[in-house]
């Protein structure tokens, strides 16, 4: 749930619910729609949540097939830190400080991109995290001069799949793999147990290729974070969903389980020919995309007859949309401790929300 715009006596507000919240909010749509326009953020590849009272379905570009589908999801509002405008020496100095602060020992050369590949994944079967770790170790056994950064996200250290990954790493540690278990890092991130965008972007910027393992996702935000930071993408050839929307033969290569080693070596050897797409960056970065999004709403919902655009923008809460839209901002009053997201799925949470709208 994100309160984009609070209602007043003069105009309706705007609420954006997640696809996971839709079933719970179904019974409240009539009352809420009296004072609010309701949008649904679709972060899943599952069916779109259609309803007469849903003003807009926010969904990845390739799935916009209905009149009320608009191509804006959390990946369109990536933090300003995900960019390609960096001094490589400063980027690597930042990495050194982050690693030192978290007692992680790994050699960093301040003059070059340090990692041939980077993986940033949650410890879950759907993300294929264990498979990606296996690929990484196999590759490094055959390419002893290359390096890989493996960032693992997990809040529940008792998760059996997470334990499987940690056990495999402990038994097969490799000196050229920088393994970062974000459950134990020191961070001020209020959105999940992991790096802030300001921290994470350094690892992307010091990497050449991002490897993605998930086969079915609604928007694949990490793919787009990596693209914005100058990485090429190595993704599953059977991947479905929004992750494919901006991939082409200029910025990516697709792989399968049989040819992964061959594809890793090929894309690594061709990276120097890669040309960064600044137009795509502008489409995905909040410094450009927020105004595009707000201008669309401002005109189509007729706020332009009530407010100036500057007033509308000032009253709209566009802070950290990359986290708030999918329910990943845990710094909200209705968040339940130890839950993975802040989705409103109970009457108790809904009562809290009502105090804020």
Name the features.
5-stranded mixed beta sheet, single chain, alpha/beta, 6-stranded parallel beta sheet, Rossmann fold, 2 domains, 357 residues
Molecular structure report:
The chain has helices at 22-25, 29-32, 88-101, 129-142, 160-171, 197-205, 221-228, 260-270, 278-284, 286-300, 309-315, 321-324, 347-354; strands at 2-5, 13-18, 36-41, 54-58, 69-70, 115-122, 148-153, 177-181, 207-211, 216-217, 232-236, 240-241, 252-255. With 357 residues, the chain is of the alpha/beta class. α3 (88-101) crosses α6. The chain starts with a strand and ends with a helix. The relative contact order is 0.16.
Mean pLDDT: 94
- Helical residue percent? 25-40%
Superfamily (CATH H level) name of the largest domain? Glycogen Phosphorylase B
How is the main sheet built? Answer: 6 strands, parallel
CATH architecture of the largest domain: 3-Layer(aba) Sandwich
Strand order of the largest sheet: 8-7-6-9-11-13
| Elements, N to C (H/E) | EEHHEEEHEHEHEHEEHEEEHHHHHH
Structural classification: alpha/beta
Distance between the termini: 11 Å
Unreliable stretches covering 5 or more consecutive residues = none
Radius of gyration: 21 Å
Number of domains: 2
In what range is the share of β-strand residues? 15-25%
Tell me how many strands there are: 13
Number of helices: 13
Query: What is the CATH level 1 assignment of the largest domain?
Result: Alpha Beta
Shape: globular
**Would you tell me which CATH topology of the largest domain applies?**
Rossmann fold
């Amino acid at each position: 749930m994100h309160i984009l715009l609070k209602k007043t006596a003069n105009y309706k507000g705007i609420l954006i619910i997640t696809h996971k919240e839709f079933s719970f909010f179904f019974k409240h749509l009539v009352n809420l729609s009296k004072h609010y326009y309701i949008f649904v953020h679709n972060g899943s590849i599952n069916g779109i949540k259609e309803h007469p009272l849903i003003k807009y379905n926010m969904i990845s570009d390739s799935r916009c097939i209905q009149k009320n589908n608009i191509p804006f999801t959390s990946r369109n509002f990536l933090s300003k830190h995900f960019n390609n405008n960096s001094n490589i020496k400063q980027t690597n100095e930042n990495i050194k400080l982050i690693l030192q602060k978290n007692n992680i020992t790994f050699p960093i050369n301040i003059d070059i991109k340090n990692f041939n590949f980077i993986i940033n994944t949650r410890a879950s079967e759907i993300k294929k995290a264990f498979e990606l770790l296996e690929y990484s170790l196999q590759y490094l056994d055959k390419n002893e001069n290359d390096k890989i950064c493996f960032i693992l996200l997990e809040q529940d250290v008792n998760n059996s799949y997470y334990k499987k990954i940690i056990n495999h790493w402990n038994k097969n540690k490799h000196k050229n793999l920088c393994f970062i278990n974000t459950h134990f890092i020191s961070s001020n991130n209020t959105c999940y147990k992991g790096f802030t965008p300001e921290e994470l972007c350094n690892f992307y910027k010091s990497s050449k290729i991002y490897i993605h393992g998930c086969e079915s996702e609604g928007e694949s935000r990490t793919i787009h974070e990596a693209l914005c930071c100058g990485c090429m993408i190595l993704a599953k050839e059977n991947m479905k969903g929004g992750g494919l929307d901006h991939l082409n033969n200029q910025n990516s290569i697709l792989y399968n389980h049989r040819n992964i080693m061959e594809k890793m070596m090929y894309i690594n050897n061709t990276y120097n020919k890669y040309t960064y797409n600044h137009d795509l960056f502008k489409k995905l970065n909040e410094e450009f995309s927020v105004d595009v999004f707000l201008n669309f709403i401002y005109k189509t919902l007729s706020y332009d007859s009530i407010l100036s655009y500057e007033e509308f923008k000032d009253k709209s809460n566009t802070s950290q949309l990359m986290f708030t839209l999918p329910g990943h901002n845990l710094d909200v009053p209705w968040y339940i401790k130890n839950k993975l997201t802040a989705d409103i799925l109970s009457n108790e949470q809904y009562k809290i929300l009502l105090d804020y709208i």
